[in-house]
Amino acid sequence: MKPERISIFNYEAFYLDYLEGNLGVEDTALLLVFLEENPELKMEDEDLPVYDSEDYLLTPNEKLELKQSDEDEVIILENAEYFMIAEVEELLSEGKKSELDDVIVGKPELEKDRAIFAAVTMKPDLGIVYSEKNDLKRKVVALWPYVALAAAASVLIAFFLLTNNQSEKTPSFAKETDSTEESTDQNQDKLEEDIVAQQLAEEINEPQEIGTDKNEYHSIPVIIQPDPKIVQSQRATMARLEKRELRLLVHTIEGVDLEPISRALQNVVETETASEGEVAYTGFEHMTDPIQGITSRLNKRMKSEVEFKTAKATKDKSGGFFLKIGKFELARKKRK
Amino acid sequence: MTSKEYNLAVDEYSDNIFRFALKHLRNEMSAKDIVQETFTKVWVKHEEVRYEKVKSYLFTTAYHAIVDWVKKEKRSGDMQDAYEQSSTPTIEFSLQEVLQSALERLPEIQKTVVLLRDYEGYNYTEIAEITDLSESQVKVYIFRARKALKTYIKRLDIVI
User: Fold this and answer.
1) What is the DSSP letter of A309?
2) In angstroms, what separates the C-alpha of B77 from chain A's closest C-alpha?
3) Three-class DSSP labels, A84-99
4) Closest chain B residue to the Cα of A88, Cα to Cα
5) Any chain A CB within 8 A of the CB of B149?
6) What's the pLDDT at B17?
7) CA-to-CA dists, residue A34 to A3, A11, A15, A26, A39, angstroms
8) Of B6, B35, B154, Cβ closest to residue A130
9) Which residues of chain A have a CB within 8 Å of the CB of B114?
10) Which CATH number fits domain B89-160: 2.30.110.10, 1.10.10.10, 1.10.530.10, 1.20.140.10?
11) What is the Cα A32 distance to its own chain's centre?
12) Which of A71, A319, B23, B61 could form a disulfide with A313 if both were Cys (CB 3.0 to 4.6 A apart)?
């Protein structure tokens, strides 16, 4: 299909030629047919732009405004205003300022213009303030308290694991330890507690020789029984209880305020052994805090007392550690 | 820019952005919306924006938000009403008040460059970055605006 000579896409060019009297006879006929078919495209007289050269003359000032000035030009009356603004904008050199002074001097109208230009700089109204700043701000979440708490818990757990491992290295405990790992049932734990409590109660009723084994931990006093089988049984039971303390500690860190079983048991026998100086919760004064920065920050952040002390055992002094978070206290004591 | 630096920027520049928007829009609620929108956009990009550059970034964002707002309002006709209300002759007492009135009569782009220049002390290069103009365009607009302000003041025959 052959495209039409005059269409919606090109009719304007034909239309302008027609209006200016430059369109040929054939094209004029085609255009008139096209406009008949598309009456909405027909322009009325008032729609037609009329060019009258007399109406389109720019004034000298308008022409001046179109010209590009720069600060190196010679200052004359016609461009003095430009240099007055340039002066306000701090674009003039000292030399140009003097030149401007020379041009303006003795001309009150220009002097007044210069004064107005100097005055027309906007000053912010500092009384207008944005009153909802806090809504724009973002809350900063500090992670370090949680990290510090996790670090402290890790240190604590490491101590527990270390002490348990050392206990398990003792040959007489090996068999019992294996059986303990297999038995995690809470009923079993309860049964063990009952057994130990019963044994301790029997010892209190029938006092026997009380001594200490220097290779043992002293969070719980060791009561020496004449029968080696009973001693071995007690040790195995205590090892299992220590493992259970570790589990309880995890619960404590998660927010449950639990007290380790060994401490509860210790309280039972504390009166019996105090004279012998075997109670675990004494003699931590010589210990030091290896993570003082963390504990002091925790003190401030948690708004409750946090203490952590540790020391190596020597011939003269016992070693171990002591942890206190608020009301929760935990300690281990060891002698060389 | 960290969260802390972002919050510092809120303290430092939210008033400036608010005044800048208020001068353009002459509507407190709309100016507050612009501030909110500006800081929200900057927060989204806060990890990419250095604190040293945040003021410029804020003004650029605010400027574009204002331009969008003006376009939208012009379409709905509200801007014209606001302009007419603000153009109502009032008794003006100080040069700054007269200047504020004269500022309202400037074209938006001239108003923008003058505010950035006089309120915030930006140089031509910085204004050009904020407004997407060339430095020479910025200079031309500032010169035209100053001349228009001078003409307005002179017409009122205010004693300087």
Assistant:
1) E
2) 26
3) HHHHHCCCCCHHHHHH
4) B146
5) yes
6) 92
7) 13, 8, 10, 12, 8
8) B35
9) 122
10) 1.10.10.10
11) 75
12) A319
Choose among A202, A199, A189: nearest CA to A241: A189
Please determine, looking at this structure, whether the domain spanning B1-88 carries the CATH number 1.10.101: no
Amino acid at A168: E
CB–CB of A323/A330 below 8 Å? yes
Q: Which residue has the higher pLDDT, A287 or B65?
A: B65
- pLDDT tens digit sequence for A161-191: 777 666 555 554 444 444 444 445 555 555 5
Q: Give the tens place of pLDDT for each residue, B104-133.
A: 888 889 999 999 999 999 999 999 999 999
* A274, pLDDT greater than 50: no
pTM over 0.90: no
Q: Is A255 on the interface with B (CB under 8 A)?
A: no
**Pair of tokens at residue A83:** 């240099």
- pLDDT tens digit string along B125-155? 999 999 999 998 999 899 999 999 998 888 8
Residue ranges per structural domain of chain A: 11-53, 58-119, 153-334
- Alpha-carbon span A207 to B155, nearest angstrom: 115
Q: Give the residue extent of every domain in chain B.
A: 1-88, 89-160
Q: Confidence band (pLDDT; 50, 70, 90) for B156?
A: confident
